Amino acid sequence: MDRRYSLEEINDRFAIEDLYDRQLAAAEAWDFAAYDTTFAADAEIDLSDFGRPAERYPAYRAWLASLRPAMPQAQRIAGGLRLALSGDVATARVPVVCHVTFEQAGIRRRTTTGLFYVDRLERTRDGWRIVARREELGWRDAEPAPR
User: Kind and range of the H or E element at 133?
Assistant: First the structure.
């Protein structure tokens, strides 16, 4: 039998789905004001699968902003949200495919990466926010990008 959700659970699910949609759109547009509305100010971000140490959101945000000159194009496609709610906290696992064009010294390279956002979220006075994220590498492919 399918689970029946309370109105509060339905509202929370829609709010969290909106958070992920807002986060992906903000990342693609390099809109850090919108991006900031998806993470807690002191969120822990773990990119160890990608060779980066775990760090707090401000350091992660600065690193992400530094990529802008070398990343002229990017598209992220999220799959099914696997969400577990428990009051004011939630855990999520989101499959994401990232298509990114990198440019360095005039040479473009396109990468496609399959990963999972493994997140812990909390309800704050401003709405749901990601308080911890681990990006788990699924697979990676790279090829020269057309000009």
Answer: strand 127-144
Task: Please name which of 83, 96, 86 lies closest in space to residue 23, comparing C-alpha atoms.
Answer: 96
Q: Write the Ramachandran bin of 16: left for phi over 0, alpha for psi from -120 to 50, otherwise beta.
A: alpha
Q: Which SS3 state, helix, strand or coil, does residue 120 take?
A: strand
Summarize pLDDT for 105-134 with one digit per residue, the tens: 889 999 999 999 999 999 999 999 999 999
Domains of the chain and any CATH numbers: 7-144 (3.10.450.50)
Which residues of the chain fall short of a pLDDT of 50?
none
Entry pTM: 0.91
Structure-token pair, residue 123: 């309800």
